[in-house]
Amino acid sequence: MNRQYKHLFFDLDHTLWDHQSNANETLADIYNDFQLFQLSEFNVSEFQDTFHKINHGLWHKYHLGLIDQDYIRNTRFKMILSTLGIEIYDSDMELGKEYLSRCPRKSNLMPHALEVLDYLKVRYPMTIITNGFAETQEIKMASSGLIEYFDLVITSEQAGWLKPHHKIFDFAVQHAKVSPAECLMIGDNPSTDIEGARTVGIDQIYYDPEDRNEGHQSTYRIRSLLQLKEIL
Ligand SMILES: [Mg+2]
């Protein structure tokens, strides 16, 4: 146990909850259920790749404050289908709703997540800090079994600020009743999770499973969640 730290903060998507696998499963289900292969000659993996490219761009704009959640929800699938060459498809809004309702119910986690959380749970109180939609994140936490490991789930909606803004971290520190120096933030996003925590004096663990590194500064960098057991 690392006595320097009294409270751990975790990001949710791509850090514990395997967003990529869960999204891909959901998109494959939707592709088949809505018979999207009848619309044009794109296959499941083109559908998935296009989704991730467009979704990534939209979330980037969301983090910059350029668009809101409704914009993502309402236009995501129209943009995806348009990129795949389908300009008119009346059910694009319905696809968006289906995706939002089905994806959070998927339960794939990042490798070793539960084993590591079992180890940490008896040693540290833990909080989730996430920029995702509040109701979506709650469903993910419940359906994947993550909820039982965390004292608190802080969403940007609830805090009123998005990571990396210092106010969401201040809010979390206040709720944890500790000082920033006693906390540790674990996340996969070098700007929202890592830089955000650093600006308020919270140590950070950059979870970088794909070894992107990209020269970011962090207190620790890990490629597997298992390495948390060595640090903590
Ligand atoms: Mg993340």
Kindly provide the name of the CATH class of the largest domain.
Answer: Alpha Beta
Strand order of the largest sheet: 3-2-1-4-5-6
Largest sheet: 6 strands, parallel
Number of strands: 6
**Apparent shape:** elongated
- Indicate the radius of gyration in whole angstroms: 18 Å
Bound molecules: magnesium ion
Tell me which CATH architecture of the largest domain applies here. 3-Layer(aba) Sandwich
The structural class is alpha/beta
The H-level CATH homologous superfamily of the largest domain, spelled out, is: HAD superfamily/HAD-like
Question: Mean pLDDT score, rounded?
Answer: 94
Short synopsis of the structure:
The chain is of the alpha/beta class. 47% of the residues lie in helices and 11% in strands. It has helices at 19-33, 44-63, 69-83, 92-102, 113-121, 134-144, 156-159, 166-176, 190-199, 228-231; strands at residues 7-10, 126-130, 152-155, 183-187, 203-207, 220-222.
Please give a structural write-up.
With 232 residues, this protein is an alpha/beta fold. The chain folds into 2 domains: 7-17 and 109-231, Rossmann fold, CATH 3.40.50.1000; 19-105, Putative phosphatase, domain 2 (DNA polymerase, domain 1). 47% of the residues lie in helices and 11% in strands. It is built from 10 helices and 6 strands; from the N terminus they run βαααααβαβααβαββα. The chain has helices at 19-33, 44-63, 69-83, 92-102, 113-121, 134-144, 156-159, 166-176, 190-199, 228-231, and strands spanning 7-10, 126-130, 152-155, 183-187, 203-207, 220-222. A 6-stranded parallel beta sheet has the order 3-2-1-4-5-6, with helices on both faces. Helix 3 packs across helix 4 (92-102). The longest helix is centred in the first third of the chain and has 20 residues, at 44-63. The radius of gyration is 18 Å and the shape is elongated. The structure holds magnesium ion. Residues 11, 13-15, 187-189 line the site of magnesium ion. Magnesium ion is lined by residues 11, 13-15, 187-189.
